[in-house]
Amino acid sequence: MAVQKKFSRRDWTRLVNSFRYQKRRPASSSKYWDERIETMSRDELRQVQETKLKALLHYLRDNSPWYRRRFKEMGLEPGDVRGLEDLPKLPMTKKEDWSQNQVEKPPFGDFHCVTPRQWARDGWMLYSTGGTTAKPRFFNFTHHDKDIWAYGWARAYWSYGLRPGTVFFNTSVYGPFPGMWGSQYGAHLMRCPIIPGGGMDSRRRLFFIQETNVTCVVGVPSYVLHLGQVAKSEYGIDPAKDTKVTDLVTMAEPGPCVPSSKQRIEEAWGGARLHDLFGHTECFPMAAGWSCAEETAVRGRPMRDHLSEDLGIFEVLDSETFDPLPPGRRGVLVVTNLWSEGIPALRYLMGDYMVYSTEPCACGRTFAQADGGLMGRADHTLRVRGVWIIPGAVEEVVRGFPDLDDEFQLVADSVGDRDICTLRVEPRPTIPKEAWPALQKKVAQEMRFVLGLGVEVELCAHDSLPRFQRGDLDAKAVRVKDLRKAPGA
Length: 489
Ligand SMILES: [Zn+2]
Known about the structure:
The chain is an alpha/beta fold. The protein folds into two domains: about 375 residues, ANL, N-terminal domain (Rossmann fold, 3-Layer(aba) Sandwich), CATH 3.40.50.12780; about 100 residues, ANL, C-terminal domain (GMP Synthetase, Chain A, domain 3, 2-Layer Sandwich). About 35% of the residues lie in helices and about 20% in strands. It contains 16 helices and 19 strands. Helix 1 runs antiparallel to helix 3, helix 10 runs parallel beside helix 12 and helix 14 packs antiparallel against helix 15. The longest helix has 22 residues. It binds zinc ion. The site of zinc ion has 8 residues, from helix 13.
């Protein structure tokens, strides 16, 4: 019997790099960073995904002890998979799987494809998540990962229309958060300078933005909005006249995909163009999806994000049965990573709601799209009296009222045997108290219309709801509170 050769890290990274056609700077054409892959026919793209998926199964079996055990338990051989139609046969990976694995085999678990020893000698960086309810979880990445990371971000930045000459300003803390590092390496690949503005307060950040001719501000939507607003209200800086900012790139919250939020953010920055980008620390810590600048500009539609389909497989599944859904239906997003050397996750339950669309795009890119971007995480939604409430839909209602400030909080509680849902919002300080009852009634009516559910509306004093001025990343979790859960659950 022939001895089967191990599918090594080198085999895998070579294969991944073989589908990266643009290796030199600048981009291959004026419009696309990597024209060949970005405009490939859908059939060819499917072949790329299938070739990488088949190789990935060998790579995981031969290099990740955790996946090897998983495949063995299921009696799964890499050769059993012929194409994308076999995806449902493959195991899904959930957050709990890896956190439990790290508890059992500290500190890194054994799901990575590089051993702790290899990583110590040859690693690039460590990312982590968690920390609010669980121990931080660790993820080890390599130099190959960094290169693909930079490539993915540069490709997104290029498609926004950003070119050499752009001066970037990253507003969030770097730390073990992939977003800002990805932005940094992507900008560098484009030969653009970047100002790391993490450890500053708003005033200092604005000073840097104004004095150093920053043209693109990067960060979390709620903070970028806040920064644009305080520029004017507290420091007398008019972003339209007093800065050179033309573009804003945000991530980690649905903000840009919520039409009324997008409008507020762009207005706060004097009409700068807002772009969306999303990824996920564990399964796809870089530009998994990024908004199409042409789609929004040409057709005036709400956000649509192209999916990096050469670097990942994006499945939209029913949130309860995990059965595949046809394009156009909203379901939860499951992602297979087709690029990482350290952790190429297989069918990772990202858990955000998304609608998958293969409609041809105005920009000529053939990558499918997340129609409306990501719509909030399934575990941040509330189910009240049988109705699912998605925070993005509530954000759209709140920010559609010019008399309301940006922040809101949604609280579910039970009174007796009845579940109630309360929306807390802040009228702007210029709204007199006499006008509050009418405003409260209008918001409640709009909520009932949009959600199909009666919601109590509570008007709160200005500046009383939690705000996220440090640009930290826990903002998304704080807007929704479910007090019906048992303590500690
Ligand atoms: Zn497009």
